[in-house]
Amino acid sequence: MFIGYFTERPYQDEASGFFGATGKPIMDLTVSNGIYDSHLAADLYNRFLDEKIYAEEMGFDGLMLNEHHSTPFCMGGAMNVEASILARITKRAKIVLMGNILPIWDDPLWLVEQLAMIDLISRGRLVSGWVRGTGRESVAHNSPPPYNWERFKEAHEFIIKAWTEPGPFRWEGKHYQYRHVNPWVRPYQKPHPQIWLPGVVSRDSLVWAAEQRIPYIMLSTELEPTKKAFELYHETAAEQGYESGPQNLGYLWKVHVDETEELAEATARKFIQGPSNPFLAGNEGTQNPALLALPGLSSRHRVLPTQAVSTAARGGAGGVLGRPYEQQIKDYTIIAGTPKTVIPKIRHVLEYLRPGSVFFWDGDGAMTHDDAMRSLRLMGEEVIPAVQEIAADLELPSSFDVDTKTGKPIEQTPVATADTEGGHGQD
Amino acid sequence: MTTTSGTWTEEILELAGTKVQMVKGGSGDPLLVLHDEMGHPGWLRFHEELAKNHTLYIPSHAGFGETERLDWIMNMRDLAGWYLEVLDDLGLDQMNIMGFSLGGWLAAEMAVMCPDRFKKLVLVGAAGIKPTQGEIFDMFLVVAKEFITNCILDPAKTAEFQQICPDEPTPEQVEAWEVAREEACRLSWKPYMHYPPLTHLLHRLKSLPSLIIWGRQDGIVPLSAGEIYQQAIPGSQLSIIDDCGHRPEVEKPEEFVRRVQQFLSAG
Q1: Does residue A286 contact residue A357 with C-beta atoms inside 8 Å?
Q2: How far is Cα A316 from Cα A319, in angstroms, rounded to an integer?
Q3: Which domains does chain A have, with CATH numbers?
């Protein structure tokens, strides 16, 4: 099993208005950055990087970053910048990007170069996820929503070719054209870093991931529809003539561990306070319905069982967004407690969904640095070792244990780090 | 399949290699009517009035309504080029052309490509030009009903508002709006609802009698865009309707029809 750590890096400043339960009822795209406090932001960026370093020390396999634009709930507008820093200041953990928003890049050659550089500087620790982005991403970078899916697929093909085939070559595609592709940087990992696909809504995306035999990561969705979506992946794999397994699937959800049950509850309630993500389950912030239903951004008809969020935005029955804390605790989309109470609940999730990768989403919303650090310490001391044991017991290999394309075990090689390889990487 | 009502029929025709939904009604001098970004709104009073003296041809654009979407059409010029062959296949030599909003932009593009093809041009709140004052309202940052409501200055006083924007739209109507918005998005996401070179090409319409109709309080395409159309098309008239938003044909149908009839019937 691969265990990763994630936070959305919220811009925690009451002056910004909050999307969450304790905040003002603001709507996406309505918050002016005129109130942006650069000193506060400098502190926050450094805090989140420090927490990633500590997460690595505590034994996490992966440090996950994501990207959103023009919104206070996620400060990772240029996630690859954070990833570049992590490439140098961490030693062992994978740097998991979930992900770069392919369709909003008018020039994906920048991605070919940036990501290969991150992979080189980290000596092969990059996991390169792709996403299609929400409406706010298409609006912020002015990428045409009806071509989102076409651009996604073409950019993916282009990047893989640029990483794997010797240049120079020409690319005359529908959405991207290049007369001379020969980037003077190639990935450390061969043939290229693993590509993962996180998502929530689109059936097209999940089926595509299964066709490509790349891992699909479900983001903070309720368990039952998540399981149904995973079944669709396995069915697609069977149609494609291969057997998928835990190595093909991942699940991200909110987990907070604390010193006492009381402190755990008080802190975990902060998940849905402060500037937390209004797009995902449990937040009580105000959605912008037009942003969630940009024309053609994703198919109106080919949707996953987990897509109640966008159904609600289009006027259908939803109810996901308003789900209170107690309900989320009950349905396990938030797990909070001491290690003793948290571990059996995580076991339940692993048994039910059988993912090979999991990500604990913590330190978000209104949580402070201290809140995040307490949880990270207890995860490292007690939860991660226990979860690894459970995963071994349940036979849940990750995509680093078993090849997602063949289902065969991957020969383990020691992870290369600056320390083991020496040379210019000494520090 | 043909649907018939009192004065109009609707059928699917094979035109320019494509299945095209065509509403046709009335009798007299042919008038091509190009719908706006939300698709053909149904047969309204202004259609009924104009049909007394004209044969109205109201196709749904490629990708709108029941007309097939063509993957290669990625901007307004592509659509205009395709449309000229639709007219070829209809067998109409010279005809009057009238376009609303996005359909007005389309009419202008078709006319500058092929000015001899048309007898008279009517543009109504036409997109296609970047206004000098104000911005074109961004239809993609609001939901369909909110956009349509913004098209009308005073919905409460607009008799046909419920026809174009029902309080409780049917699922079919909601789907038709989404189809229209998606295709409009393909055609006009960037630059949004305009194409800078069009202003310079409009001079080619110097021999085409052109009427530009605008609601003075147009909240979608500001009046300054209409003024640029008027300045760019030699000999054109700008006809402004007071107390009226983006859709004079719906909000002030009598006034609108009177001005169009007068223009089309003039010698």
Answers
A1: no
A2: 10
A3: 2-425 (3.20.20.30)
Q: How is residue B130 written in tokens?
A: 């970047």
Helices (H) and strands (E) in chain B, counts: 10, 9
Q: Which residues of A touch B (CB under 8 A)?
A: 29, 139, 142, 144-147, 289-291, 293-296, 300, 315
Task: Pull the structure tokens for residue A3.
Answer: 């265990």
**pTM of this prediction?**
0.93
Residue B254 has a CB neighbour count (10 Å cut-off) of: 10
Are residues A276 and A10 in contact, defined by beta-carbon separation less than 8 angstroms?
yes
Looking at residue B252, its amino acid is: K
Tokens of B133: 């004052």
Q: How many degrees, rounded to 5, is the angle at CA A28 between CA A27 and CA A32? A: 90
Chain B residues touching residue A295 (CB < 8 angstroms):
140, 178, 181-182, 184-185
Q: A29 to chain B: which residues are within 8 Å by CB?
A: 141
* Beta carbon pairs, A and B, within 8 Å: 41
Q: What six digits make up the tokens of A23? A: 């905040």
Q: What is the pLDDT along chain A (427 residues), one digit of tens a residue?
A: 999 999 999 998 876 666 555 555 567 777 788 889 999 999 999 999 999 999 999 999 999 999 999 888 899 999 999 999 999 999 999 999 999 999 999 999 999 999 999 999 999 999 999 999 988 899 999 999 999 999 999 999 999 999 999 999 999 999 999 999 999 999 999 999 999 999 887 898 999 999 999 999 998 888 999 999 999 999 999 999 999 999 999 999 999 999 999 999 999 998 887 776 665 555 555 667 888 779 988 887 777 777 654 443 333 333 444 567 888 899 999 999 999 999 999 999 999 999 999 999 999 988 999 999 999 999 999 999 999 999 999 999 999 999 999 999 998 765 555 444 444 433 3
Separation of alpha carbons A368 and A370, rounded Å: 5
B2-265: CATH number? 3.40.50.1820
**Closest to A82 in 3D by CA, of A71, A72, A74, A70:** A74
> Which run of H or of E encompasses A79?
helix A79-89
Token pair 């000229």: residue: B84
| Partner A, chain B 167-206, Cβ-Cβ below 8 Å | 174-175, 178, 181-186, 189-190
Q: CA-to-CA distance for B241 and B145, rounded, in angstroms?
A: 24
- φ/ψ of residue B92, rounded to 5: -100, 120
Q: Residue A224 is encoded by which pair of tokens?
A: 């039952």
